[in-house]
Structures are given as structure tokens and as C-alpha cells.
Design brief:
Elements lengths: L11 E4 L10 E9 L5 E2 L6 E8 L2 E5 L2 E5 L3 E5 L5 E5 L6 E8 L3 H7 L8 E3 L3 H13 L5 H24 L3 H4 L6 H15 L6 H8 L3 H12 L3 H19 L4 H7 L5 H12 L3 H15 L1
Helix pairs in contact: 2-3, 5-6, 5-7, 8-11
């Protein structure tokens, strides 16, 4: 049974200013809006934004192309891209949206059928994804448990989209001999997840999954727009940041736990990533938490 979609121009819900929960993928904001006629958006954004059209009509322009869109369709906005989307004057659209970012976003979107050359797609039936949005709107608190719950909903939503895309993809296009670049990236990330504390390097990762270091770096650049070396450093820095906030471990202990034997090298890498020394980062976040209590 399809949902009843209210048609009230100007209705607007927005959840934003969420803290980052994961370097892999994290929710930045989410919302719902039933637009007024000619309501337009044209500002470039720093994050990805995916819209699901619930009712009405409008147009979306990006990369020199323009699409006239309506219910049952979705469209993706890439970070920093000049875009315009606008509600129809006679039958303005209503939509829900999510804004998100992370180092695995490109892989996830690829498996959902999106790319720079494919910015619009048919959406699943509203009942499939609106349950996710209803859950998101019910978990707005800034506490840690709600943040984790929102992350799980975001992953569930992308699982729905990936399954929907796969169901419309010919089997002949899915079957490939050998491992795809996507698979090698996922194998590398799984290995990093398990072994980052042991001081592993890029050569260890390449040898474990069975490809050359050069090829490993190439596919990370191609799939994630980041070198494997920088991915590994970023991964360790985000793990360290979580430990600084959630534990009372010393800087030296945290340095060792994320695979650095030299505390000075760790501190320099951390400051380069976050703009603060580990000690200052911990102090600043603790002060923010106290102000919010």
C-alpha cells in the first residue's frame, strides 16, 4: 500500500549539524520539503545530496544537462558541482533528501547506479525508503546512540538502493571474471580494519590481496579519489580521534594503538589532518561537550 503524500506547499523539515560518526560514510543532514512554485536551489555544496521526489514536478540541471523530473525519480548532487534545481510553477514538487560524505561514498553510489554521467534514476517504491526517513526524523538527538542509529539507517537506505539497482541490471553486466577494482578496494579496507594497529604499510596490504603496490594505488585513486597511503593515514587518524574522545588513554598509548611507534610522527600526522595537536583536540571537544550538557 502506497503512503498518503500530503500536498502542503511550504512544509519543511530539516535535520542538520550532525557530528561525523565514520570516515567511511556519515550523514550530514536530512529533510523533507513540499516546495512553493519556482522554489529554486543553486548553491554548490560540500557534500553529496540525494533527493527522492514524492509528488509534483521540477527540473534539475547539472554538467550541461537538464532533466524534467517527477514522482518515482531521484537525483544526485555532487560536491562542488554548479547545479540548479527548481520546482514547477503549476505543480511544484515535494521531496525528501539526505546529505552525506565519506571515503566510501563513491563505491556505494556506483553500486546504486550513480556516477557523474548518471545523476538521475528511478527510485524504489516510496514504502521501501520512506520507512528509513521516518526513522531518521524520529532520532534527531545529538547523543551518541542516536548518531549510531542514524548511521545504521543511512546504510540501510543505501542497501535498498543497491538492491533496487541490481534488480534492474542485466545479469550479463554483473558477471565478471576475476576480482573487480571495487572488490580489491573492499578487500584492502577489510584488511586495514583488522590490521591497522599492527603498523602495516601499503606493501603489506598489496601483498595480502595479491596485487602490485602501484595497481593498488591506482584503483584507490580511481574508486575513492585518494591514494592508498593517504587512506591508511586518514583511517588511523579517525581511529585516534575516536580514542581521544571516548577514552582516557594517554597520547602515547593512542599512538601505539593506531600503529605508530613514534609519538612525534603520530602527533604531526594528527595535526596535519585535523589542524590541532591530539592534546588540543581532546581538550576542545571536552569543552564543547561540557557546554552542551
Amino acid at each position: 500500500m502506497s503512503r498518503e503524500i500530503p500536498m502542503q506547499a511550504g512544509e519543511f523539515i530539516c535535520m542538520q549539524d550532525f557530528s561525523e560518526t565514520s570516515m567511511e560514510i556519515t550523514l550530514v543532514h536530512a529533510g523533507k520539503e513540499y516546495c512553493k512554485p519556482y522554489h529554486a536551489v543553486s548553491a554548490a555544496r560540500n557534500e553529496y545530496i540525494l533527493h527522492f521526489i514524492l509528488s509534483g514536478e521540477g527540473f534539475y540541471s547539472a554538467n550541461g544537462n537538464t532533466w524534467h523530473l517527477g514522482p518515482g525519480q531521484m537525483f544526485l548532487v555532487y560536491p562542488d558541482d554548479p547545479i540548479v534545481y527548481c520546482a514547477d510553477v503549476n505543480n511544484p514538487w515535494g521531496y525528501v533528501w539526505i546529505g552525506f560524505k565519506g571515503i566510501r561514498v563513491d563505491i556505494i553510489l556506483k553500486n546504486c547506479g550513480f556516477s557523474k554521467n548518471h545523476l538521475t534514476h528511478p527510485a524504489p517504491a516510496p514504502d521501501e525508503y520512506m520507512d528509513c526517513f521516518d526513522d531518521l526524523f524520529e532520532h534527531r538527538d545529538m547523543g551518541f546512540s542516536d548518531a549510531l542509529y542514524r548511521e545504521s539507517i543511512l546504510l540501510k537506505l543505501f542497501a535498498i538502493l543497491a538492491n533496487h539497482h541490481a534488480s534492474y541490471t542485466p545479469k550479463s553486466d554483473q558477471g565478471q571474471t576475476g576480482y573487480s577494482d571495487n572488490t580489491y578496494v573492499n578487500l584492502s579496507i577489510d584488511y586495514i580494519n583488522k590490521m591497522y594497529m599492527q603498523g602495516i604499510g601499503v606493501s603489506d596490504i598489496a601483498n595480502t590481496i595479491g596485487i602490485s603496490r602501484a595497481h593498488l594505488n591506482h584503483i584507490f585513486q580511481q574508486e575513492l579519489n585518494i591514494s592508498i597511503q593517504n587512506f591508511l593515514i586518514d583511517f588511523r587518524m579517525h581511529k585516534a580521534a575516536n580514542l581521544l574522545v571516548s577514552t582516557a588513554l594517554s597520547i602515547k598509548e593512542i599512538s601505539n594503538q593506531v600503529g605508530y611507534n613514534d609519538q612525534l610522527v603520530f602527533s604531526k600526522a594528527f595535526k596535519k589532518k585535523f589542524g590541532l595537536s591530539p592534546k588540543s583536540y581532546r581538550t576542545s571537544l571536552n569543552k564543547n561537550e561540557q557546554r552542551n550538557e
